[in-house]
Write a structure and sequence with these properties.
The structure is a single chain. By secondary structure, the protein is an alpha+beta fold. The chain has one domain. It is built from five helices and five strands. It has a five-stranded antiparallel beta sheet with strand order 3-2-1-4-5, covered by helices on one side. Helix 2 packs antiparallel against helix 3. The longest helix is centred in the N-terminal third of the chain and has 45 residues.
């Protein structure tokens, strides 16, 4: 009996199989995590590119001011192509033309006109209490475009963990806001800065002097 016990203690057969069985789940988890991280980063990158594209294209304006509904719709529709192969169904885009009046509203920009995709809400005109004028635009009379993009991202695994980290229904909301200098449009009144007016909108009010 003792000989058998000693023999069993010295046996090494099957050790590799046991080690592999212990390590394999960890390796598989790491592989899935790397794939998920790569997928999430790629989605975030595309949302960022989408926001920049919308801001850039809108800042160039249209042949007329205000822009036509067709021109704005083309920008919003074509920009979504950047997100492929990700699903664009639930992507929300809001683009606004903003004005700066440091004397009248300090660092709060004024929403002069705004447009959005059908599943989103355009911003109301007037001072934006939830925004601050970014550096580089903090000059009275400046006009700029702000593109706001949100998109839900659902990881393949770990929906419960996502919910614990602040997600909803196993999804994370990716949000990218991009301010962009106005490149087209025209100046209004005595203000020397050009302004793009979005469909059915009006020029910004003259800043306080």
């Amino acid at each position: 009996m003792r000989i058998r016990v000693r023999s069993f203690g010295r046996a090494t057969g099957g050790v590799s199989a046991v080690e592999f069985a212990l390590i394999f789940p960890i390796m598989l988890l790491l592989l899935v995590g790397i794939i998920e991280l790569s997928n999430g980063v790629d989605n975030w990158r595309k949302v960022t590119l989408l926001s920049r594209a919308v801001a850039d294209l809108t800042s160039q304006g249209d042949k007329q001011n205000p822009m036509t509904d067709a021109a704005m719709a083309d920008i919003l529709r074509s920009a979504k192509l950047i997100l492929r192969p990700f699903d664009t169904t639930n992507v929300k885009i809001v683009v606004s033309a903003l004005g700066v009046d440091l004397k009248g509203f300090s660092l709060r920009p004024v929403v002069c006109s705004s447009a959005a995709t059908d599943n989103a809400q355009a911003r109301a005109t007037g001072p934006a209490s939830d925004l601050s004028v970014p550096q580089g635009f903090q000059v009275t009379g400046t006009r700029y475009i702000l593109a706001e993009v949100t998109m839900p991202y659902a990881p393949m695994l770990g929906s419960a963990l996502v919910n614990q980290l602040g997600g909803t229904n196993g999804r994370i909301t990716l949000t990218v806001n991009t301010p962009w200098p106005t490149r087209g449009g025209q100046p209004y009144g005595v203000n020397p800065y050009s302004e793009v007016v979005l469909p059915k909108g009006a020029p910004c009010p003259a800043p306080v002097t």
